[in-house]
Design goal:
Blueprint: H1 2-8, H2 12-19, E1 34-38, E2 41-44, E3 49-52, H3 55-58, H4 67-77, H5 92-103, E4 107-111, H6 114-133, E5 141-145, H7 154-158, H8 163-166, E6 176-179, H9 184-190, E7 195-200, H10 216-227, E8 230-234, E9 258-261, E10 273-277, H11 279-282, H12 298-312, H13 315-336, E11 341-346, E12 351-355, H14 362-371, E13 374-375, E14 377-379, E15 383-386, H15 394-408
Parallel strand pairs: 3-13, 5-6, 5-7, 7-8, 8-9
Antiparallel strand pairs: 1-2, 2-3, 4-10, 9-10, 11-12, 12-15, 14-15
The chain binds pyridoxal-5'-phosphate (PLP).
EC number: 2.6.1.13
Cofactor: pyridoxal 5'-phosphate
Enzyme class: transferase
């Protein structure tokens, strides 16, 4: 009954119109309606194909529907998907052991979304401050950086410096101090005996892929160690191969006290996040003090373990480093040619490209790239963020660079 099938199927334009009255307007998506995807490619309702240069903000580091990850999910769906932490599951121990091993830390607390991992770290750092460091009750502070993005919960937007993210959502959670990013002197000045932790992104993704100067992460590590507070690295976007190393902190061989992972940890299939930390830190939690119904569920642990299988080969880190050099060269050429690019920053397969606001907003550039069959996302008005799957081929990357050259010339 092909007629039934066609009348039941709505076009991209119809589906976009249907969303407006029923879906909260907390996003402003590009006008593309994805119906299927594989590897670096997505396909819309009408069968048009697009190269995905956003990769779900790095949740799709291994591309869409990586066969090993989809297999792991399928196999687990036939066994058990959810136990809650009221019981043990046969998947969780192995996942936690291997995640700790990969990161050089001791203990894991599995959650679901990135924001939950950040919230967990805030709670754990405060508890550590009271029980281990001896900060006076309810006086603990956490130092964060200007331009940060750590998620969308009430506590997290309390220390955001983005007006749009905060405005209208007060009253806010106290106990945070904001210092300029990539400024060790300002950081040192903000730390005192109440400081539980310094929470930073090793590279600020949402801010436009801002890469701190060489030595900053080493400086944060030394400073936090010397002043007796925790270094919490939010690697929810920068981690798991994106920058050409397993973690962005690996570029300076720095090990934080607390590492936050999410996005790619769920293989683009299920939300999986984790707080990974030294035993002295996560060890402060006792039964009942924190948790999540879905955190560390068997499906999440199975997919997360399959993600670790991929990372343990080192193949994706190498690809990100090698193809990152291709991306860097391509962007350098485009920037040299003049045109709309005023500056760009790149590390591994991750780049922020600033465009001259006189020649178009980031949104307009994204729409022009969409017309060329390339999906990207603007950030902060005039920056385009590029974060293709780490599985992208050199030919696909060249095609994306050609589209960028055409649109930005
Ligand atoms: C995406 C992101 C988060 C929040 O993750 P969600 O899963 O969207 O809650 C936190 N920190 C960083 C650095 C991120 O990029």
């Amino acid at each position: 009954m092909t007629t039934t099938a066609t009348t039941a199927t709505r076009s991209s334009a119809q589906l976009i119109r249907a969303e407006a009255p029923v879906l909260a307007h907390n996003y402003h998506p590009l006008p593309v309606v994805v119906a299927r995807a594989e590897g670096s490619w997505v396909e819309d309702v009408e069968g048009r194909r697009y190269l995905d240069m956003l990769a779900g903000y790095s949740a799709l580091n291994f591309g869409h529907r990586h066969p090993a990850l989809v297999d792991a999910a399928h196999r687990q769906l036939d066994l058990v998907t959810l136990t809650s932490r009221a019981f043990h599951s046969d998947r969780l121990a192995g996942f936690a052991e291997r995640l700790a091993g990969l990161t050089g830390l001791d203990m894991v607390l599995p959650m679901n979304t990135g924001a939950e991992a950040v919230e967990t770290a805030v709670k754990v750092a405060r508890k550590w401050a009271y029980e281990v460091k001896g900060v006076a009750p309810d006086r603990a502070t956490i130092v964060v950086a200007d331009g940060n993005f750590h998620g969308r919960t009430t506590t997290i937007v309390s220390f955001s410096t983005d007006g749009t993210a905060r405005s209208g959502f007060g009253p806010f959670t106290p106990g945070f101090r904001v210092v300029p990013y990539d400024d060790l002197a300002a950081l040192e000045a903000a730390i005192d005996e109440t400081t539980a932790a310094v929470l930073i992104e090793p590279i600020q993704g949402e801010a436009g892929v801002l890469i701190p100067g060489d030595g900053y992460l080493t400086g944060v590590r030394e400073l936090t160690r010397r002043t007796g507070c925790l270094f919490i690295a939010d690697e929810i976007q920068s981690g798991l191969g994106r920058t050409g190393r397993t973690l962005a902190v690996d570029h300076e061989s720095v090990v934080p006290d607390v590492l936050l992972l999410g996005k790619a940890l769920g293989g683009g299939i299920v939300p999986v996040s984790a707080v990974v930390a030294r035993r002295e830190v996560l060890g402060v939690l006792r039964p009942g003090e924190h948790g999540s119904t879905f955190g560390g569920n068997p499906l999440a642990a199975a997919v997360g373990s399959a993600v670790l299988d991929l990372l343990e080969t080192g193949e994706y880190q190498r690809r990100a480093a090698g193809l990152g050099a291709v991306l860097d060269r391509g962007l350098a050429e485009i920037a040299r040619a003049g045109g709309a690019v005023t500056a760009y920053r790149a590390r591994g397969l991750w780049a922020g490209v600033d465009v001259d606001p006189a020649l178009g907003t980031g949104r307009q550039i994204s729409e022009r790239l969409l017309a060329e069959g390339v999906l990207v996302k603007d950030t902060h008005g005039s920056t385009i963020r590029l974060a293709p799957p780490l599985t992208i081929t050199e030919e696909e990357l060249d095609a994306a660079l050609a589209a960028l050259r055409k649109v930005l010339a």
